[in-house]
Specification:
The protein is built from six helices and no strands. With 154 residues, the chain is mainly α. It has a domain at 108-154.
Length: 154
C-alpha cells in the first residue's frame, strides 16, 4: 500500500458541518450567542457626564435642553452676580453675617479658579504662537497683526 492509498482510506473530517452541528445544539461545544451586542469599555466615562433622569428630575428632557443651552456653571454664576449686587446694596453693618462671609469666600475661590484657567489658556496660546512662528512665519505675522488690532480696541 502506498502513501496515497493510505491517505484516501482515512475518514475525511468535514469541519464545517461538525461546527455547524455543534452550534445547532444549545449547549454543544460552541453554542452561538443569541445576542451579539457587547458593550465596549463598560463603566468607562469620557468627559464630564451628568445623568438627568426621571429619578432626579420632574422634567428631564426640559432640563437637558436647558443645560445644553446654559450650563449649570453659567446659571450659578449669573445668580451669584445678582446676589453679589444685592448684598452690595445692604448697609455695611448688615453684611457681617457668616453666610455673607462664606458667600464672599466662595466667590473669591471661584474667581481664582477662573483666573488660573485663563492663565493656562493664554500660556497655551503663547506656546501655539511660538510653534506657528517657527513652522509658518507668514501665518504667524498675520495672526500677530490681527491680535495687535484687537488689543488696541480694548
Amino acid at each position: 500500500m502506498n502513501s496515497s492509498s493510505r491517505a484516501s482510506s482515512l475518514p475525511m473530517l468535514d469541519w464545517p458541518s461538525w461546527i455547524k452541528d455543534g452550534l445547532s445544539i444549545p449547549f454543544g461545544p460552541f453554542p452561538a450567542p443569541r445576542n451579539l451586542e457587547q458593550p465596549i469599555l463598560p463603566g468607562w466615562v469620557f468627559g464630564d457626564v451628568t445623568n438627568i433622569t426621571e429619578q432626579n428630575s420632574s422634567a428631564p428632557e426640559t432640563e437637558r435642553a436647558i443645560i445644553a443651552s446654559q450650563s449649570y456653571g453659567r446659571q450659578l454664576g449669573r445668580m451669584m452676580d445678582v446676589l453679589d449686587l444685592l448684598i452690595d446694596q445692604l448697609p455695611k453693618e448688615e453684611r457681617h453675617a457668616k453666610a455673607f462671609e462664606e458667600f464672599d469666600k466662595l466667590r473669591k475661590d471661584i474667581d481664582d479658579i477662573k483666573a488660573k484657567a485663563a492663565t493656562r489658556r493664554l500660556d497655551r496660546i503663547a506656546a501655539d504662537l511660538t510653534a506657528l512662528k517657527q513652522t509658518k512665519p507668514e501665518e504667524y505675522k498675520r495672526v500677530v497683526a490681527d491680535l495687535r488690532e484687537l488689543l488696541k480696541g480694548g
